[in-house]
Design brief:
Layout lengths: L9 H9 L3 E6 L36 H15 L7 E6 L9 H12 L4 E8 L6 H13 L1 E9 L3 H6 L6 H13 L3 E8 L6 H12 L5 E6 L2 E2 L3 H5 L9 H14 L5 E4 L9 E3 L6 H15 L9
Parallel strand pairs: 1-2, 2-3, 3-4, 4-5, 5-6, 6-8
Antiparallel strand pairs: 7-9
Helix pairs in contact: 2-3, 7-9, 9-10
Length: about 300
């Protein structure tokens, strides 16, 4: 933790690695998902939007030229704000290891070959890491900065089944272990506020992933979006009644996360036009400010209660 921060933010970590503000460029490379095309299921995870949670990614075509255009377009928008920034290509939408390995190689290296790109981040499901894909990721990791994001969401199989994820906690555990064995950084995703989960269940999920050798953690606020199956099934569901309730939970989560784990997210980003609830979720800056204020008022910090 640096600069008086009370948690180990990925932004500070990356500034230490690269020496400059580091920005992720979100890329939609045209992938789909085995839980949509029928391989393991249909309809997708109940909480996932029609856009595969990639509504904020750039959409410039699904080949090497499209990736180059996505990078150029986003840097053009961001360079005035951060003229000295370092950029990481973030393969975000849907399942970004779900394709023949030769296609993955072509797309990943299309980003890495751009001299403006200093590394890549790849978001995927824990059941889409075959041996050939792991070999490719290991190869990339030896020559480039890389992390792989695994969407677990909950460490409770009953919740995963209810949310139609079509994978189990043990699937995640095996994937994290395989990546760790190959020296690849793992960033786990958890969703706070999934239907049926109480506070202690959510804290148990945090404890679980922190025991799987993770480099980083994303805590997502459960956003109900108009294009998700969950909204169709539970249109009136509200995961948290107030910002205060959510902030209190996040602070408790941070206290049990080991201090060396990088924190990549503490809330959620959803286009406001798609958001149903919590109605205050779009106020990202307010939520983060309240988390920081709460940590200071309680004189607590990441890892304060870590085992």
């Amino acid at each position: 933790m640096q600069g008086g921060e009370r948690y180990n933010s990925i932004s500070n970590y990356l500034k230490g690695v690269f020496g400059h503000k580091t920005v992720k460029l979100s890329i939609d490379a045209g992938f789909t998902c085995p839980n949509r095309d029928g391989k393991v299921g249909t309809g997708g995870c109940a909480f996932c939007s029609a856009g595969g949670s990639g509504e904020l990614a750039a959409h410039n075509g699904y080949d090497e030229a499209g990736i180059s255009e996505s990078i150029t377009e986003q840097i053009g928008r961001l360079s005035e704000k951060w003229p000295d920034a370092v950029y990481i290509a973030y393969f975000q939408s849907f399942t970004n290891t779900y394709a023949p390995v030769e296609d993955l190689r072509r797309l990943y290296y299309a980003a890495l070959s751009d001299p403006r790109i200093s590394g890549i981040a790849i978001a995927t499901r824990p059941d889409c890491l075959g041996e050939d894909v792991l070999d490719l990721l290991e190869e990339i990791n030896k020559g480039h900065f890389l992390w792989v994001e695994l969407g677990l969401q909950s460490a409770h199989d009953s919740t995963l089944k209810a949310m139609n994820t079509c994978y189990t906690v043990s699937t995640y555990d095996r994937a994290a272990a395989e990546l760790n064995t190959r020296g690849i950084r793992v960033v786990a995703h958890l969703i706070l506020g999934l239907p049926g989960e109480d506070r202690e269940m959510m804290l148990d999920s945090v404890r679980h992933v922190c025991g799987t050798g993770i480099f980083g953690l994303k805590l997502h606020l459960m956003n109900i979006v108009k294009t998700s199956p969950l909204y169709e099934a539970m249109p009136d569901y509200v995961p948290f009644d107030s910002i205060d309730e959510y902030v209190d939970l996040v602070i408790s989560c941070l206290e049990i996360i080991p201090p060396d784990v990088t924190i990549h997210r503490l809330t959620g980003d959803v286009p406001r036009r798609l958001l149903v609830s919590p109605e205050w979720s779009w106020r990202k800056r307010t939520i983060l400010n309240e988390i920081n204020r709460g940590l200071a008022e309680r004189n607590t910090f990441q890892g304060a209660r870590a085992r």
